[in-house]
Amino acid sequence: MSHPLYIAFIWHQHQPLYKSPGSGVSLSPSQQYRLPWVRLHGTKDYLDLVLLLERYPKLHQTVNLVPSLILQLEDYIAGTAFDPYLTASLTPDEQLTQQQREFIIQHFFDANHHTLIDPHPRYAQLYQQRQEKGQAWCLANWELPDYGDLLAWHNLAWIDPLFWDDPEIAAWLKQGRNFTLSDRQRIYSKQREILSRIIPQHRKMQEAGQLEVTTTPYTHPILPLLADTNSGRVAVPNMTLPEQRFQWAEDIPRHLRKAWNFYKDRFGQIPRGLWPSEQSVSPAVLPYIINQGFKWICSDEAVLGWTLKHFFHRDGAGNVEQPELLYQPYRLQTAEGDLSIVFRDHRLSDLIGFTYSAMPAKQAAADLVGHLQAIAKMQRDSQSEQPWLVTIALDGENCWEFYPQDGKPFLEALYQSLSDEPRLKLVTVSEFLEEFPATATIPGAQLHSGSWVDGNFTTWIGDRAKNRAWDYLTAARVMLASHPEATEENNPEAWEALYAAEGSDWFWWFGAGHSSNQDAIFDRLFREHLFGIYKALNEPVPPYLKQPVENHQAQANHAPQGFIHPVIDGRGDEQDWDKAGRIEIGGARGTMHNSSVIQRLWYGVDHLNFYLRLDFKSGVAPGRDLPAELNLLWFYPEKTMVNSPVPLADVPDAAPLNYLFHHLLEVNLLTQSIQFREAGDNHQWQPRFSRAQVALNNCLELAVPWADLQVPPDYPLRLILVLADEGRFSNYLPENALIPIEVP
Q: Does residue 28 carry a pLDDT above 70?
C-alpha cells in the first residue's frame, strides 16, 4: 500500500511576559506592560492564521499557544493591560508631554517599513521625514495633527489585511489623515475585539478536528537548563558556565502542571502535545513530561542528528539525504513510560521563516510544494511500508512582518496547491500518531541535550552577560527556597515572579547572538521579575539588581544575527541590514587608518543569496577617491578543487592575498557592471554567467545568488575584497582576515 506524504505544520505563537510585577522601579497601574507586542501581534498574526486555514477544510494543522501569551491577551481583552505605546495613543494630542513626543518619534515606526509603513502614504510620509530630516527636526517642526496621525497609523498598520473589509477599518484606511482621539479610541476597541476572537476560534477549530492546539511550559523556560545548567556542556564541552550551578528540576513539574491546567481551563480538554520551549530537550526532562500526561513533543533535526550521531546532508536542491531517518516519529523509552517525538525539517521551516518573504508569493508557494513533491517521490522510490511524516515547525508570528500583506497571498497560494495535490496530506501530529504510532525507538538516556539553534544551548547560556543573569536568577531562587513558608497558595506573587524570570527570552537577548533596539527594556524586565521575588518575601533587594546586566551600547564588529533580505538599491536601508554581520573598516574602531574612505562592511545571507554592503565616507566618488574596480574572491577551505591566484598586478605575496581562489566577481564601480569568473586549469580564469545584482548610491549593495557559486547547503566558504585600479592591486579588506560565510 502506498501512502501519501503526510505533513505536519506546527505554528508556535509566543510572547514573553511584558507585564512588570511592579517593583523597585515602580509603575503606575496604567503602564504595567513594558512593550506592546502582545497587542500588536494579536491584531496581526494569531487570528488570521487560523481563519485563513479554515477556508481550506482538507488541511489540518497544529498551533502552539504559550500560556504567557494567552495570559496577556486576556489582560488586553479585559482592558486592564496598558503599555506606554497604548497610553500615548489614547492621550489627547494637546496633552502629550515632551517625553512622550520624543518616545513617539523614536518608537512609533517600530515595524518593517517595506510591508507595514510604505503601503500607507501618510504613514510613509511621516517615516520619510524622520529618516531624512532626523528626530530633532520632527520634534521642532511637527504639529499636533502629525502626532495624531502617527499615533493612529502605528496601530492601524498592525491590523491584519484579512480584516480590512470591516467597514470601520476600511473607513480609517481611506481617511488616511487628521485622526482624532475618538478615532484612536475606536481603533483600540477594534484591537480588543480582534483579540477576543483568538482563543474561541482556536477552540472551535480544534473541536471541529481541523486544528490541534498544544502548549508550552508556563512561561517558556529552557527546561534542560532548569534541571541543570551543566547540560550546556553536552553539546559544547568547553562552555564557560555561570559561577553558581542552577539545579532546580523541581520547578519543571510546576511549569508543566500550570500549563496543563491553564490549557484545560481554556480549551475544555487536556493537551496531548507539548512544544518544549525553543525545542530544547534532554534526558533529564523526559520523566516530568511523561508524568504530567503529555503524549508527544517536538524538536529539531539537529537534536536528532546529535542523538543518532548522524549529520543530515542535503543534495544540491536542498533535499535531505537518507530522508527516512528524519521523516518519521520516534518513541523515547524511559523507566516512567514512553513519549513520542517528532523532529522538524530545519531547512523547510527556515524557508518559510526567513526566505520566502523575499520571493513572489506564487513562486515561493510553488517552491515549497516542489520540495514536498520531491520528498513524496523519494518516499515512493523507497517502497517503504511505513508512512513518512514531514514536520514543518516554526515561529508563527514574526516572519509575516516581512511578507507583503502579512503573508496572505503566500498562504493562500500554498494552501490552494496543497488542497489540490492528492499525494500530499496535511495532518495534526496527534492524528498521525493515532493512526501510525511510532515504531522507531530511542532510549531516553540517548536523547541529545540541545535546542533548535545548532543543537546546543549557547543562545541562552555561556557568555559573560548570559551567565551573570543565571547567577542573579540562582541567588533569587535560593532566597525563595530559604522561605519554606512562602507557598504558591499563600505567596503567589513570589512564585509568579520566579516563573517569569525563568522564561527563556531574557537570556536570548543578553550577550552575543541577538540584539534589538529594546535590549535595555528586556534587561530591565528581567531584573524587575527578580525584584518581585525579593519584594514578595520582604527581603532586601541586592544592589546589583538596580544596575543593567550588561552595557547596551551598540557593538562594533559582530557576526550575522539572522537571515537578511535587503532591497538592492544602493541606499543601505537600516532595517534591511539590521541582522547583518558588520566589520568596522575606517574610524577609531577600524583596522585601517582613519582616513579610509570605506567606513564599514556589512554581510549576510538568506537561502537565495549572499549579500554585501560597503559604506563610504560622505561625498566619496569611485575613480577619484576610491579605486574603480572591486573584486570579490571566494576561497573554499579544506576543499579540493581547481583554484587560481588573484588576477591583478602588484599583489603582495602575503596571506590571505596569496591564497588561491575559485570564484571571482569583478564589479566596475563607475558603470556598476559585473564580470563573473571561475578558476580553470593552469591558474586561468574562465568567464561564467551571473545573476548578481549591484547598486551604488550612498553605499554599495550586492546580491550574489548561491546558484552562481554552485555550492550545496551547509557549505563553508570565505571571502576577501580586493580593490584595484586598471588591473593593479590597490588595497584589500577586511585586513589580515577573510569574511566567514556559511551557506544555509
A: no
Q: CA-CA distance, 702 to 611, in Å (whole number)?
A: 6
Other CB atoms within a 10 A radius of the CB of residue 661 amount to 25
Q: Indicate the pairing of strand 693-696 with strand 663-668.
A: unpaired
Name the grid cell of 611: 549579500
Q: Are 654 and 626 in contact (CB under 8 A)?
A: no
**Contact of 690 with 674, CB cutoff 8 Å:** yes
Is 278 buried (19+), middle (13-18) or exposed (0-12) by CB count in 10 A? Answer: buried
Per-residue confidence (pLDDT) for residue 1, from 0 to 100: 57
DSSP string, 541-595: PPGGGGS-SS--SPPSSB---S------SSS--TTTTTTSEEEE-SSTTSSS-TT
Position 233 scores a pLDDT of 96
CA–CA separation, 272 vs 429, rounded Å? Answer: 9
CB-based contacts of 281: which residues, under 8 Å, 6+ apart? 223, 224, 297, 299, 303, 341, 447, 448, 449, 450
pLDDT (0 to 100) of residue 554 = 65
CB 536 within 8 A of CB 528: no
Q: What's this model's pTM, rounded to 2 decimal places?
A: 0.88
Q: Region 455-473: what's the mean pLDDT?
A: 95
Query: Would you list the DSSP string of 170-187?
Result: HHHHHH-S---HHHHHHH
pLDDT in tens, 117-140: 999 999 999 999 999 899 999 999
Residue with cell 518608537: 107
| H or E element at residue 324 | helix 323-326
For residue 94, how many other CB atoms are within 10 A of its CB?
A: 9
**Which sign, positive or negative, has the C-alpha torsion 97, 103, 104, 106?**
positive
Q: Write the single-letter amino acid at 321.
A: E
CA pair distance 400, 430, nearest whole angstrom: 26
Distance, in Å, from the CA atom of 104 to the CA atom of 124, rounded to the nearest integer, reads 15
Task: Average the pLDDT over each of 151-160, 177-186, 271-280, 704-713 and give the range with the smallest value.
Answer: 704-713
Give the long-range contacts of residues 478-487, CB within 8 A, separation 24 or more.
Answer: 479/533, 479/534, 479/537, 479/539, 480/533, 480/537, 483/537, 486/536, 486/537
Strands (E), 403-556: 424-426, 440-443
The gap from C-alpha 292 to its chain's centroid, in whole angstroms, comes to 30
d(CA 300, CA 392): 10
C-alpha cell at 263: 490549557
